[in-house]
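Notes from hallway chat w/ T.B., transcribed later so I don't forget. T.B. wanted the structure written out for a chain they're using in a teaching module, and asked if we could keep both sequence and structure tokens in one place. Agreed to drop them here.
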Amino acid sequence: MAAGLVVILLAAGCGKVDLGGSDTTDVRYGYGPKPDKSVVYQPDVVLVAGGSGVVRSVSRDGFTYVIDGNARGVKDVAPGKIMFATSEAVGRVVKVERSGDDKAVTLAPVRLTDVVRDGHFTFDRPLDAEAQTFGPLPDLLGEVVDGGPAGVVVPDAAQGTGLGVNAIGVGDVRLAVPPIVFAPAPEPGARGAKTIKRNVGDWDIEAYKDQSKMGLTASHSTAVQRLKVDFDIQLLIRNLRAWGDIRVTNGVIPHPQFRIDGVEGLAITIAAGAEGGLEDNKKVKIELPIEVKQPIIIGGFPATLKQTFKFLVSTGFSAKNGNIKATGKWGLDGPIGYVQSSVLTPAFSVQESIVKSIRGVSIGVEGIVVAAEFRFGFMLGLPVAGAGPFVGIVASVGVTNGSAAGRVGLPLPVGPGVKCRGSTLVLTVRAGEGISLSEPLVKAIEQVLGVSIPQEADFIKKDIVNRTVVEPDVPLCRD
């Protein structure tokens, strides 16, 4: 897109303001605003011209942007205002400091309606998973473990995070912020990286994507806890496409519509074992610091289409040297989302039964639960806290395997040598609007930046399927 004048129509009726050209060849931080009379901004919004080209650097935590001191509009950036430089460099100004000839601006997360008073945004475009760019998120990165107080350890200031030291205290939750890696959107026909790897505590995590799937692989193994977990969960896709019709009226989004087409199924493989039995069990929630993003511009309004990932694992081993493994595959046929207040849920089918695949050897009952969320969003705001309408698919899969010794003393068919095994699958469509942040990180930001973070709001939540299957199908196994 050619460079042009950036025009803002203020809600206060001040008319047009010429903010100069916007370079759209550099989109590391998303597109900058562009002329469009259909968008009316809130009166405290300050547009900074130049797009990604005026962003000199960004702090490791993703909250402080160093902006070209000569950029048009930057002189009006002040605490309390909302700076809008690009779709990923927008937020409530908390602090402004000089950085040589430039300005270092610390931003707090804002909602879409904090920025836009009136606007109508429609889109219908393919999501090219291979061309999209992987980018790590400075989100909650750590483990949540049962049996201890939940808290947040903010990284040391010496690491350059900007958030300070131990803002909330020490607990079982750790906030570790990696450097933010931005990359320009690929040219048409180009291909982005297919995988990205991260280490979170004792977990090795890999996210991957291509034209047929988006997935997560995670492995856990420690000599001390003697717990081994490996799983792979993937969303099966074909011709993935996002459609949206989002109208903002007087600072309210009355009836947003957002739909994802091209999700065809879900596949999972699980394997786990515990040498110590009960003492090795663990419940872990990990907010994966990975997103896949695609900058877009609608008229003169810049935004980002994003897919993000997170997962939870809980093990239940009752005897030493127990192990369990299973594989399942399910089909999904139809769009996912919400249109005209109606929830769109796809038709469900079983392609490979997970309960029939359950294998393992133990003298006790063993089990594992893996849950993951794949979220698609129309986002505006900081990479750590994008805001806007979203739709997500939440998948929870649990498998149990009975004792290899059988139910001794019980009448057949559940007796010696006969094992109960079962699985529970819950697939849910979840949609809403707001700032996507984990609760511990919200508390950390609020305390360190001294601001209040608006909560995310669910519009709808509806099960695609919620079913439990046991074999043998007899009352004793079902109990």
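Follow-up for T.B.: The longest strand covers residues 227-248. Might be a good example for the class.
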